[in-house]
Amino acid sequence: MTTHPTTPFDGQKPGTSGLRKKTAVFMQPNFLENFVQATFNAIGGVRGKTLVLGGDGRYFGTDAAQVILKMAAASGAARVIVGQGAWLSTPAASNLIRKRSADGGIILSASHNPGGPNEDFGVKYNMANGGPAPESVTEAIFARTKEITEYAKFDAPDVNLTAIGESHLGAMVVEVVDPVSAYADMMEEIFDFKALRGLFHEGFTMRMDSMCAITGPYAVEILEKRLGAAKGTVVHETPLPDFGGMHPDPNPTWAHELMVEMMGASAPDFGAASDGDGDRNMVLGRGVYVSPSDSLAVIAANAHLVPGYAQGLKGVARSMPTSAAVDRVATALGIDCYETPTGWKFFGNLMDAGRVSLCGEESFGTGSDHVREKDGLWAVLMWLNIIAARGQGVAEILAEHFERFGRNYYSRHDYEALPVDQANAMLNDLRDRLASLKGTQNHGLIVENADEFAYTDPVDGSISVQQGFRILFEGGSRVVLRLSGTGTEGATLRVYLERYVPGPAGLNEDPQEALGPIIRATEEIVGIRARTGRAGPDVIT
Ligand code: G16
How far apart are CA 108 and CA 26, in angstroms? Predict the structure, then answer.
């Protein structure tokens, strides 16, 4: 074991989900080591502990895994359970932490951000419950990164991560496991695999775009091997270090190949995509796109049809910028609905306390208390199970849902890579004007209230402030603005637009048209295009 002197790096503050930076930044001498040692220091060391380790297969992942193994060995960890090839999807890592009663885990991923030497890398610490570290822990990690003076590393050759089995690094056991099987077994416990096999047997067709990222092996095992979907159902199924040049973010902009196929004449019955680390999902029917907020609401309304949720949901939770579609379902079901800040980490306490069993976010994240991360393939299987149980396609299910609950038209507009100073100035200016917006009329919409979202965790009482600006208009429409906490280049402004239409008329408009007045009012109030010089958003979901 060698102790290496080091000095702090600026900017090792974890964001919405771990530390994400350009890969080259992570590859600088000591950068990864500092962050890992700071993490170990912040959690009271790893002596005698068991950790889970894996990632989404992106460039630098296996090198980083070797560094972390040697650092864990030098710090006295008892055992590290690693996915073969250093692969683990984020939900599979969460599952392993829970199933193996590990003390925590390290996930190597920048999620939906592109990968490769010129793209992004990331490291995230998860707790013993399998969920992302809460703010109290990420703040402690950040504090340790600022005062670090040394790190410890075990001097040894690299561990063979390609073969399943156990080996040793000093006294520490390195256990290489199949990254897929435990996760696939869990899915088999939750869902009605017999009904799903029947669905595919009767000729149901599906396209699953794994975007050259980690869900490929999981989707092939579950959909094609265990459920009998036709070979070739899963495309881009081999995880590649640069995701084959794809931007593995399952939204209409980046999963455009799937969009084109699903909107085309020979579209399959069902389409889905997932992201770099397998926790996000997008679902589509033939000719129909399901917005993530609507997906959450449909899943909530139909969860009782799925064996794992036959007893009903304990409660639901959504991030604040997510539409209120699920709130209407919760009211109808008579269960609680919680509104949290953006970030899956805020759902953990609610799930651990048994208050909610279903959570979701507008950012293509849906999941339940089967793990403590959002889970892309789980959401896909939820939809398949609901389709099988109802004997209806996506379009019919969605139409009936809107007829029953009304429709929350919803869209997110992203302005990417803005100069940080410009974005901050724009939002600071908005903060200063918030109080005076009330009662003003903009493009025919009257501002009913405007505030900045703050959250008090109902379980542990912790408070999170400055979690996004909300402008609520009379009649129930709203716009939310916040800066992304997951980007690595400049600032990404997210503008979340929502309008509720109760029906029965007006349920089939184009969302961008239905939201037109709110888009125009937002421009009048905030002046995004005027201030940034941008003609429009880079991404529309
Ligand atoms: C992460 C978080 C999510 C969050 C999303 C977007 O997802 O886990 O909870 O909604 O980022 O965050 P932001 O708007 O700050 O970019 P992922 O899939 O990147 O881990």
Answer: 11
Active-site residue flag, 109: no
Architecture category of domain 407-540 in CATH: 2-Layer Sandwich (3.30)
Residues 525 and 521: their CA atoms lie apart, in Å, by 6
State in Å: Cα 171 to ligand 1 middle. 37
Mean pLDDT of the chain: 96
CA distance 387 to 396: 10
| Count of CA atoms in the C-beta half-sphere (13 A) of 99 | 15
Model pLDDT for residues 62-114, shown as the tens digit of each residue: 999 999 999 999 999 999 999 999 999 999 999 999 999 999 999 999 999 99
Instruction: Report the distance separating Cα 525 and Cα 497, nearest Å.
Output: 14
Looking at the domain 183-405, which fold is it?
Alpha-D-Glucose-1,6-Bisphosphate; Chain A, domain 3 (3.40.120)
118: CB partners within 8 A, 6+ apart: 22, 23, 24
pLDDT (tens digit per residue) in 383-438: 999 999 999 999 999 999 999 999 999 999 999 999 999 999 999 999 999 999 99
Q: What does residue 127 show for φ and ψ, rounded to 5 degrees?
A: -85, 180
Protein residue with least CA distance to atom 13, ligand 1 = 484
Average pLDDT over residues 133-155: 96
> What pTM value is reported for the model?
0.93
Assess contact for 492 and 418: CB atoms under 8 A.
Answer: yes
Q: pLDDT at residue 1 above 90?
A: no
Ligand 1 atom closest to residue 109's alpha carbon, by position in its atom list: 20
Ligand 1 centroid to residue 318 C-alpha, Å? 13
